[in-house]
Design goal:
CATH superfamily of the largest domain: Crystallins
Largest sheet: 5 strands, mixed
CATH class of the largest domain: Mainly Beta
Number of strands: 16
CATH architecture of the largest domain: Sandwich
Strand content: 35-45%
């Protein structure tokens, strides 16, 4: 009993340190995460992630995304099912730190099984579809670190890390040089898993139209 109490106490401390809120220890463990980073307008997204299929399991993670994009590089458990409400745009990854195979989910609804997603252990929510925004990712297939633009930028200081792109909304032109110079490509709402898919070797500046 003493060992069990110690383990439970240790878990409780870890949850406090990582910013999660735990419910009554006698019921399902409920974690809460509220996005508090860069604003892009109220989208009213709520996602409930479950540790078991069919919306059961010992653990739940509630993500309330109001006016920020959200990232969690390591979920407190492997996701097995999810409910999404409102305008959500999620990418789930099979490895921590947004690595491994990426799975895009952006339609509100109930998903009783994530079997086809493998082991979902990290996740990020992007601005909702239709937002005038473009997202750059460090690795191909939308992995690694990311940067979000809502307006034109004549020099992307992180350009050397850009390997894939998602255009959330609007029309964008990306350039190989700074201050909108050199080779240019016009991009529309679409997924670009590699820079070669758009005929570019690098993106140094981007303009919103």
């Amino acid at each position: 009993m003493a060992v069990k109490f110690f383990v439970a106490t240790l878990i409780g401390v870890l949850l406090v340190e990582t910013g999660f809120v735990r419910a009554d220890p006698l019921s399902t463990k409920v974690f809460t995460e509220v996005a508090e980073t860069q604003e892009f307008g109220v989208c009213g997204c709520e996602a409930i992630v479950y540790s078991g299929p069919d919306f059961y399991g010992r653990f739940e993670l509630h993500i309330f995304q109001q006016n920020a994009w959200f990232e969690k590089n390591f979920l407190p458990f492997t996701a097995e099912s999810i409910k999404m409400r409102g305008k959500c745009f999620f990418i789930f990854y099979e490895e921590a730190n947004f690595l491994g195979t990426a799975h895009i989910l952006k339609i509100a609804g109930d998903y009783p099984s994530l079997t086809n997603f493998g082991n979902v252990v990290s996740a990020r929510a992007l601005p909702p579809e239709g937002t005038n925004a473009i997202v750059f990712f460090e690795h191909s297939n939308y992995g690694g670190r990311m940067g979000v633009l809502y307006s034109s930028e004549d020099y992307l200081y992180y350009y050397s890390f850009i390997s894939s792109v998602i255009v959330i909304g609007g029309s964008w032109t990306v350039y190989k040089g700074w201050f909108y110079s050199e080779y240019a490509v016009r991009l529309y709402d679409r997924y670009y898993p590699t820079l070669s898919a758009i005929g570019m070797s690098k993106i140094v500046s981007a303009k919103s139209w």
